[in-house]
Design brief:
This protein is α/β, with parallel strands linked by helices. The chain has five helices and seven strands, in the order βαβααβαββββα. It has a three-stranded parallel β-sheet with strand order 2-1-3, sandwiched between helices. The chain has a two-stranded antiparallel sheet with strand order 4-5. The mean pLDDT is 90.
Length: 150
């Protein structure tokens, strides 16, 4: 039996994670779920959108299923998604794309993989208001980050 940290998310998150759980159960995977909440509702109650015990659970279990979590603009907290990426060093976003049999593709024979660095660039979160109504964001890109994603 494998314990998995479950972060249902908000909005459509719980619906998506419940569907994913049903798929995993149907596959025969022997999983035990350790649920934790994160996001705007948690921030209102606890003062943080990502409580420390959520990260502790993921580090302990070494695997998590996370549903979508929105980041309300101007609510005073950092994106849970970006915080998870940076805290757990989840630096690679890998997106395979291929044409599927039986589905008419827009482009025939598509078979590509997009790899995107997930913790630097604008995800660094170096932002400031330079004057009323004007914000500036610094794109932080390091040699180490570029080398490892390549």
């Amino acid at each position: 039996m494998r314990t998995v940290t479950l972060i249902p998310g908000d909005g459509i998150g719980p619906e998506v994670t419940n569907a994913a759980k049903r798929i995993l159960e149907a596959s025969g995977a022997k999983l035990e779920w350790e649920p934790h909440d994160a996001g705007a509702a948690v921030a209102e109650k606890r003062g943080t959108a990502l409580p420390p015990e959520v990260l502790e659970s993921i580090r302990s279990n070494k695997v998590a299923l996370k549903g979508p979590i929105g980041t309300p603009i101007g609510k005073g907290f950092r994106s849970v998604n970006v915080t998870l990426r940076q805290a757990l060093d989840l630096y690679a976003n890998v997106r395979p794309i291929s044409s599927l049999p039986g589905i008419e593709p827009r482009f025939e024979g598509t078979d590509i993989v997009i790899v995107r660095e997930n913790t630097e660039d604008l995800y660094a979160g170096l932002e400031l208001m330079i004057m009323p109504g004007i914000a500036q964001s610094i794109k932080l890109i390091t040699e180490r980050g570029c080398t490892r994603i390549c």
